Amino acid sequence: MAIARVPSTVIDCPDPEALATFYGALLDWKVNLDGYDGDWTEISDGTGQRFAFQRVKNYTPPVWPGQDAPQQMHIDVDVDDLDEGEAAVLALGATKHEHQLGRTFRVFLDPAGHPFCLCQA
Questions:
Q1: What is the rounded CA–CA span in Å between residue 54 and residue 76?
Q2: What is the pLDDT of residues 49-73, one digit of tens each?
Q3: Which residue of 3, 29, 50, 91 has the smallest Cβ count within 10 Å?
């Protein structure tokens, strides 16, 4: 039996609404702005999976692959086609990272500078 349930991944950022909107569009998840106070919001898939976004004063984005400001965390998402996925995330406001390591995934930065990967099996 689980000790806890309904896990959330919480991502620090300078603008929770903007980052929730970005990831909501990327994953086609609902952005929840009910009671939004400017410091915290969430997205969810409707089955209990959630990401939360928390405002951090004086936020410093990670610098990957360097370790002066390490990535702290990143999200991998699966896509059917890397080229189509890349075009879509760039249109949402992502930036393709200059440092690419593999052929089955691509590294991008979300609008707050967090690395995330599009992966194709």
A1: 20
A2: 889 999 999 998 888 888 887 777 7
A3: 3
Domain ranges, ordered by start, for the chain: 7-57, 74-121
DSSP alpha helix (H) spans, the chain: 16-27, 82-92
C-alpha closest to that of 43 among 88, 72, 13, 70: 13
pLDDT tens, position by position, 78-103: 899 999 999 999 999 999 999 998 88
HSE-CB at 96 with a 13 A cutoff on CA atoms is 13
Superfamily of domain 74-121: 2,3-Dihydroxybiphenyl 1,2-Dioxygenase, domain 1 (3.10.180.10)
- Could you check whether 7-57 and 74-121 share the same CATH topology? yes
CATH number of 7-57: 3.10.180.10
> Does the predicted TM-score (pTM) go above 0.85?
no
